[in-house]
């Protein structure tokens, strides 16, 4: 084994021990459940005023659920982008390591 190979192994071992000192992985947040108030269905003998209140409650519930879904989707999209960015960063480092190892093999 030549000196360059030993140096590469030493650098890799050093990088691994440096990683052991890094902080723990980020704890991912939990997504809270929605807090929309689901209206109760009126009974078969409901008055017109009860039906009107139900319809108003249903409209409010509909809007609340739609806003929750939009927010949850935005959070999911953001999390997916963050994950993709981490993958890209990792892959770039792996490519740099490979290029470095290839360069010391040819020298």
Q: Give a quick account of the main beta sheet: strands, pairing sense, barrel closure.
A: none
Order of helices and strands: HH
Helix content: over 70%
Distance between the termini: 14 Å
The computed structural class is: mainly alpha
β-sheet strand percentage: under 5%
Low-confidence stretches: none
- How many DSSP H or I helices? 2
Give the overall form.
Answer: rod-shaped
Q: What is the count of β-strands?
A: 0
The rounded Rg comes to 28 Å
Mean pLDDT: 87
What are the salient characteristics of this protein?
rod-shaped; mainly alpha; 2 helices; 107 residues; 0% strand
Q: How would you summarize this macromolecular structure in one to three sentences?
A:
The chain is an all-alpha fold.
What does this structure look like?
It is a single chain. The chain is mostly helical and 107 residues long. The protein has a domain at 33-106. Helices cover 72% and strands 0% of the residues. It has two helices and no strands.
Layout of strands and helices, then pairs:
Layout: H1 3-20, H2 48-106
């Amino acid at each position: 084994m030549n000196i360059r190979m030993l140096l590469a192994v030493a650098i890799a071992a050093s990088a691994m021990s440096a990683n052991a000192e890094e902080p723990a992985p980020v704890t991912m947040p939990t997504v809270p459940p929605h807090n929309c108030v689901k209206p109760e269905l009126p009974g078969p003998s409901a008055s017109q005023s009860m039906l009107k209140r139900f319809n108003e409650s249903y409209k409010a519930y509909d809007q609340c659920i739609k806003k929750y879904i939009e927010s949850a989707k935005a959070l999911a999209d953001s999390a997916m982008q963050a994950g993709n960015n981490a993958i890209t960063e990792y892959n770039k480092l792996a490519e740099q390591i490979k290029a470095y190892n290839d360069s010391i093999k040819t020298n």
